[in-house]
Automatic annotation (TrEMBL):
The lineage of its organism: Eukaryota, Metazoa, Chordata, Craniata, Vertebrata. It is found in: Membrane. Belongs to the RER1 family. The chain crosses the membrane at residues 41-60, 66-83, 145-162. GO terms for cellular component: cell surface; endoplasmic reticulum; endoplasmic reticulum-Golgi intermediate compartment; Golgi membrane; plasma membrane. Pfam families: Rer1. Its main location: membrane. It is a multi-pass membrane protein. Involved in the retrieval of endoplasmic reticulum membrane proteins from the early Golgi compartment. One of its GO terms (biological process) is skeletal muscle acetylcholine-gated channel clustering. This is Protein RER1. It comes from the Eukaryota. Keywords: Membrane, Transmembrane, Transmembrane helix. It comes from Struthio camelus australis.
Length: 196
């Protein structure tokens, strides 16, 4: 193997210009993602805006329905992963390995841990919209289909999948949405002080 055969290195052992450019680009992208982490509402508003722009583009172009259908299936898959627990209780019934969701009133409270965290859900959904948007610029992805069948099939798939997920939630008694830790009230302070 010669001196410059390793990935990203030039002949003189220093990283090549292209490698440094893409490394820096990746660092900037990761920095932007890290800075956007606490702004959940803003991130989702931007994603909804991108989704709206994508829908307008598909409507005006009157095509790319198969790409839109694939995007819908992808988002449905992400949503189901977002609603599902990290450790499936149906698989954990027989074994005592790892944490599980409480099934009785007197069991210890365990927080709901998602299979797909919110940030990764947002990131994947946004990337999916951007990829679908990019596909609308290429005629090769404009496959002629009868779109009402795709809409009906997606609605049917959504209903069946959500029914199965809701039954799973009811059977194993978990709610994927929490609003923080419970707050317990102590005894009210009556304002009396002890006299010595």
């Amino acid at each position: 193997m010669s001196e410059g055969d390793s990935i990203g290195e030039s002949v003189h052992g220093k990283p090549s210009m292209v490698y440094r450019f893409f490394t820096r680009l990746g660092q900037l992208y990761q920095s932007w993602l890290d800075k956007s982490t606490p702004y959940t509402a803003v991130r989702w508003i931007v994603t909804l805006g991108l989704s709206f722009i994508y829908m307008i583009r598909v409507y005006l172009l009157q095509g790319w329905y198969i790409v839109t259908y694939a995007l819908g299936i992808y988002h449905l898959n992400l949503f189901i992963a977002f609603l599902s627990p990290k450790v499936d209780p149906s698989l954990m019934e027989d074994s005592d390995d790892g944490p599980s969701l409480p099934t009785k009133q007197n069991e210890e409270f365990r927080p709901f841990i998602r299979r797909l965290p919110e940030f990764k859900f947002w990131h994947s959904a946004t990337k999916g919209i951007l990829v679908a948007m990019a596909c609308t610029f290429f005629e090769a992805f404009n496959v002629p289909v009868f779109w009402p069948i795709l809409v009906m099939y997606f609605i049917m798939l959504f209903c069946i999948t959500m029914k199965r997920q809701i039954k799973h939630m009811i059977k194993y008694r978990y709610i994927p949405f929490t609003h923080g830790k419970r707050k317990y009230k102590g005894k009210e302070d009556v304002g009396k002080t002890f006299a010595s």
